């Protein structure tokens, strides 16, 4: 669950950025579905007030009295509170949360617009308690948007829960995950006119860290950008897609269904298996390939489960397998910068593994995949990663890092100047772990020539997915 790489369902997120004023942006809003809360006359007023208030905020969410008129800020807050209050009638299930939001805004304004604290509102917002398909919510919080805006600006988002009956049944009977809330955009302010596809409570400005009870993932954005990038990659690589894969690329509904199932299994896998003590590794500083392997492990587990579910007749399961392979091979390695790009590295590892096994072939300017052998090869890589984790309980932290490096570098060549590639004798083993992490190069595992070429050809396509939404599925 950065614009380094498209983080999936990782909880590894941090607020970055320096003190300054965020630049307002005009969001690329989706078409408003008829009969939704976006048709409420207060929604445009709320968006406008939030957009103006954002221009007054510093990176930490506060408003500097020496630089801005606090009386004007209070008027904007009054407008926001009035609009939020009006939504209680159309979203009665959010009435308690909306009242708490209004109170937090009032307290923030009365205290002089210091660093905002919306803990009371966060505790009142509990979307996981009623995962009714199509259930609408209005979310207004000071927050950064992971893979988007690093500043804790006010955001307003209208969204709806995506919880079709087949997913509800699978979650209830096989893949319990009480915190998982798949979402779709209705409309949003500027912080989501970005690459962000998650709504995590960890990103919200609060006075103390509570126990988190939910995590939201925008499956409509994931599906839409997957379709656009995969279609472009298949065309430029002359990849002949099977009919069922073509359906996935052509139909938003099919892709969205696949991503909900993928995310359900991926997200819960962070808490299952032969785990490190902190499955999300939030409080640990370690080489970035450890995060790459954790995210890849969760995806490969989802792939393995999708193969099993396909045999049982689950309709979206075959599509999940294509989605995992294509997103990992085509979008992840060439998205974001190359500084500790852990999701990109996971895609590079999958590519190298399939290439070495002969399942993936790049020849005569065309990419081919052995569709018959593909599932077994992906599962085999998952088995290797699982065995690394299983053996981890017997290793020291350093030994585990070295074993993980050995696994990754056996498939993906490290940078020629890497200290880690020279082995333990070259590493500062007598100091704190920090020195070992500092010895990791920003791009420890550079892109191969295939991906260098693919990146050039997909740069504009990937940029065009910023702020993308699914719209009305078809």
Give a brief description.
This protein has 474 residues and is α+β, with helices and mostly antiparallel strands. The protein is built from 15 helices and 7 strands. The radius of gyration is 23 Å and the shape is globular.
Structure overview:
It is a single chain. This protein is an alpha+beta fold and 474 residues long. The protein has two domains: 37-220, Fructose-1,6-Bisphosphatase, Chain A, domain 1 (2-Layer Sandwich); 223-463, no CATH class. The chain is 45% helix and 8% strand. The chain has helices spanning 42-54, 70-87, 95-110, 119-124, 165-173, 219-236, 243-250, 252-269, 288-311, 317-331, 342-356, 374-392, 397-409, 433-438, 449-463, and strands spanning 136-143, 153-161, 180-188, 198-199, 215-218, 360-363, 366-369. A hairpin with a 2-residue loop joins strand 6 and strand 7. It starts with 41 loop residues before the first helix and ends in an 11-residue tail after the last helix.
Q: How much strand?
A: 5-15%
Low-confidence stretches: 1-32
The string of secondary-structure elements, in order, is HHHHEEHEEEHHHHHHEEHHHH
The percent range for helix content is 40-55%
Shape: globular
Number of structural units classed as domains: 2
* SSE class: alpha+beta
Main-sheet strand order equals: 1-2-3-5-4
Number of helices: 15
Count of DSSP strands: 7
Main beta sheet strand tally, sense and closure:
5 strands, mixed
* Backbone CA Rg: 23 Å
Average pLDDT: 91
Distance between the termini: 26 Å
């Amino acid at each position: 669950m950065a614009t380094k790489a498209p983080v999936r369902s990782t909880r590894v997120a941090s607020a970055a950025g320096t003190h300054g004023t965020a630049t307002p942006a005009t969001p690329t809003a989706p078409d408003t579905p008829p009969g939704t809360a976006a048709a409420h006359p207060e929604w445009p007023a709320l968006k406008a007030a939030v957009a103006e208030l954002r221009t007054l905020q510093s990176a930490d969410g506060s408003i500097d009295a020496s630089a801005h008129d606090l009386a004007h800020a209070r008027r904007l807050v009054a407008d926001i509170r009035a609009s939020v209050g009006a939504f209680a009638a159309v979203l009665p299930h959010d009435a308690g949360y909306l009242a708490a939001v209004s109170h937090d805004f009032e307290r923030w304004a009365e205290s002089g617009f210091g660093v905002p604290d919306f803990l009371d509102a966060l505790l009142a917002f509990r979307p996981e308690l009623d995962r009714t398909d199509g259930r609408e919510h209005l979310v207004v919080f000071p927050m950064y948007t992971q893979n988007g805006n690093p500043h804790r600006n006010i955001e307003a988002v209208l969204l709806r829960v995506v919880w079709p009956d087949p997913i509800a049944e699978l979650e209830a009977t096989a893949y319990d995950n009480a915190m998982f809330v798949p979402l779709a955009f209705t409309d949003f302010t500027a912080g989501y006119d970005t690459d962000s596809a998650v709504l995590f409570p960890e990103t919200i400005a609060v006075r103390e860290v509570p126990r988190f009870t939910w995590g939201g993932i925008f499956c409509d954005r994931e599906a839409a950008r997957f379709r656009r990038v995969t279609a472009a990659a298949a065309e430029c690589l002359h990849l002949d897609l099977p009919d069922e894969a073509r359906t996935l690329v052509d139909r938003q509904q099919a892709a969205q269904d696949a991503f909900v199932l993928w995310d359900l299994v991926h997200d819960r896998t962070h808490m299952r298996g032969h785990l490190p003590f902190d499955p999300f590794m939030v409080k640990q500083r370690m080489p970035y390939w450890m995060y790459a392997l954790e995210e890849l492990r969760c995806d490969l587990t989802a792939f393995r489960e999708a193969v099993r579910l396909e045999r049982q007749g689950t309709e979206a399961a075959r599509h999940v397998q294509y989605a995992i392979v294509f997103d990992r091979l085509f979008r992840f390695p060439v998205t974001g910068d190359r500084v500790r790009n852990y999701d990109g590295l996971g895609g590079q590892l999958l590519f190298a593994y399939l290439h070495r096994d002969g399942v993936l072939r790049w020849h005569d300017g065309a990419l081919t995949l052995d569709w018959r052998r593909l599932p077994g090869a992906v599962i085999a890589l998952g088995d290797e990663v699982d065995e690394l984790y299983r053996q981890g309980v017997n290793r020291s932290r350093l030994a585990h890092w070295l074993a993980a490096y050995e696994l990754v570098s056996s498939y993906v060549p490290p940078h020629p100047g890497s200290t880690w590639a020279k082995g333990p004798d070259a590493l500062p083993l007598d100091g704190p772990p920090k020195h070992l992490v500092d010895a990791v190069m920003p791009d420890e595992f550079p892109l191969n020539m295939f991906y260098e070429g693919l990146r050039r050809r997909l740069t504009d396509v990937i940029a065009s997915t910023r702020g993308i939404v699914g719209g009305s599925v078809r």
